[in-house]
Amino acid sequence: MDLKTRMPRQIDLASGQFTAGVLHEHTTTVGMLTGLFADQAAWQALPAGTPLYTVAILPAPQQEGELLSGVTHLYPGRVGREFYMTRGHFHQRREQAEYYFGLRGRGLLLLQQAGQCVLEPLFPGSVHYIPPFTAHRLINPGSGTLSALAVWPATAGHDYQALQAQGFGVRIMADGDGWQAEVQHA
Predict the structure, then answer these.
(1) Considering the domain boundaries, does residue 17 fall inside one?
(2) CATH code for the domain of 113
(3) What is the pLDDT of residues 86-135, one digit of tens each?
(4) In the 8-state DSSP scheme, what is residue 75?
(5) Is 61 buried (19+), middle (13-18) or exposed (0-12) by CB count in 10 A?
(6) Quick one: which of 5, 69, 80, 86 has the most CB atoms within 10 Å?
């Protein structure tokens, strides 16, 4: 039997940056999120190229039984009174779950399932289970970058369209020096 030693992929837990390995990176800008924010005038006033978040994913086979891992870096900022957030999604395969691990910054994970919303604080060291059939979104009401490591099945996929019409049932808005959750009525 042959024995090989290899270096694992690495992540700097303080910064949330992968330090070894090839990455697939994608930055989502303000202009890519038409209709996401409540204050459309404030959204239109921002330069379309303003980055909201970057996702760095370690490559892996896209087949049954494989896992993907990536880090989302959600920058601080607001559109009107609404804090920067990720687009949010269901999985195309709704029965697929996911884990998030807080790495840097302080923010919120919004979960929505069957019309019910749950907010979980996300911070360095926090562990979040996203159950099957649950839409999820990160929100950054802080002053620094919010980074979270995610692990999900390679075949889960992302369904952004399912939330296009009604969106999430809660929006996180600035309230003085803090934030408040505003329930959205259909």
Answers:
(1) no
(2) 2.60.120.10
(3) 999 989 999 999 999 999 999 999 999 988 999 999 999 999 999 999 99
(4) P
(5) exposed
(6) 86
What is the DSSP pairing of strand 67-74 with strand 178-183? unpaired
- Residue 42 tokens, joined: 């404030």
Q: Supply 41's token pair.
A: 């005038």
The reported pTM is 0.94
Q: Which of 139, 133, 131, 63 is nearest to 106 (CA)?
A: 139
Q: 57: how many CB neighbours lie within 10 A of its CB? A: 16
Distance of CA 119 to CAs 102, 139, 157, 166, 181, Å?
Answer: 14, 10, 23, 18, 9
Identify the domain containing residue 165 by its residue range: 23-183
Start-end of H helices in 21-176: 40-45
Strand partners, 150: 70, 100
Say how many domains are in the chain. Answer: 1
Q: With beta carbons less than 8 A apart as the criterion, state whether 19 and 8 touch.
A: no
Element (H, E) at 156: none
